[in-house]
Structures are given as structure tokens and as C-alpha cells.
Design goal:
- The chain is an alpha/beta fold.
- The chain has two domains: 115 residues, Periplasmic binding protein-like II (D-Maltodextrin-Binding Protein, domain 2, 3-Layer(aba) Sandwich); 59 residues, no CATH class.
- It is 34% helix and 24% strand.
- It is built from six helices and eleven strands.
- The strands form four sheets. A five-stranded mixed sheet has the order 6-3-7-2-8, with helices on both faces. Strands 1-9 form a two-stranded antiparallel ribbon.
- Strand 4 and strand 5 form a beta hairpin.
- It is elongated and about 55 Å long.
- The two termini are 13 Å apart.
- The N terminus is likely disordered.
Amino acid sequence: MLVRTMIPAGVVWLALGLLPSAARVSDTFAKIHATGVVRCGVGEALRGFAQKDTQGHWTGLNVDFCRAVAAAVLGDAEKVDFVPLHASARFLALKSGEIDLLLRNATWTLEREAGLGVHFVGTLFYDSQTVMVPHASKVSHIAELNGVTMCIEKGTNHNENLTDYTRTHGLTYQPLILDSLAEVKDAFFSRSG
């Protein structure tokens, strides 16, 4: 069961730009042409967005966007290299040049754009932050979760959003920060029995 609530600065799925300055964009395009491949950072198996099947073929919205960039820049949609990234590693991979383009869920914030020096070029998919609870709990509003432990993926702004929301509404929660989405799922399902 999903308990929906309005949390400011909802999650957006973005195509994060190459880096902001014209010189860095030019350097990135030169590197892509030199290597002959567009290296795209993607989520770690997020159905519908970026997922690798048993034959090693990637599918999903973010994958298709990366292939479109490769077709536009290199003339071949198959000249791509997908790099699965944890949320906590996504911006570092972009800044270090490990990837050329980040196509992974990330909330577009002024703090990230100015502070990290990355350029968000547009929203690819718009979503909101949601809290999931076991169906058997019969919880229908986030206020019923006052004081509970909530699983949160490291490197996301979900904890900040929840802190802002709960503070504003006189609620509390205990964050359980985990390294990956897979760990968040495992923790949730092991406790929700």
C-alpha cells in the first residue's frame, strides 16, 4: 500500500547535463567522439527506467534517452555504455568524468545545481515522494506513522524532505539510511512480513 502525501520538491527523473560551462560541454563531446561511445549513468535495475535482462540487454525510458543521445551525437543508437550507479555515487561519477550523462532519478535542486556544479537540462520524468507501508497495516495517512522507522536510500534527499514534512506537521520518524535501493527493499520486506 502506498501512503501519498505532498512533500515539497518531489522527486524528478532527470537527464542531468554534461557539466555547465561551454568548455566542459565541448570537452565532453570531444571525449565522446574520441571513445566512440556515450557513457550513461543509470539506476541499478529500476523497472521501466533502466533494467538489464538475463541476456544483458538494457531497456527502459532512461536507456532509450541515452540511446537517442548516442544516435544524435555519434550517429548510432547502440554506441552506449550503461553504468549502474547507487544514488550516493551518481553525482561523483558525473563530476569525475566516469560517465558523460546521468540518467537516473535525482531531485533537481538549486543546492545541487550550484553546489555540485552540474547542469540539469530538463525534467525527463516527474514524480513525487511516497511512503510505502504493508497493506496489512491499514495505514492511510502519513500522520499514522508518527515515530516509526523509515528506510531511506543513502545519497537521496528523501531524508531532508521527510524531516521538513514531519517538522512542519508535528511528527517524528527514525531514518534507517541504507546504501542502495536493493537494501531499502530488503529491509522493508523483511520487516513488513
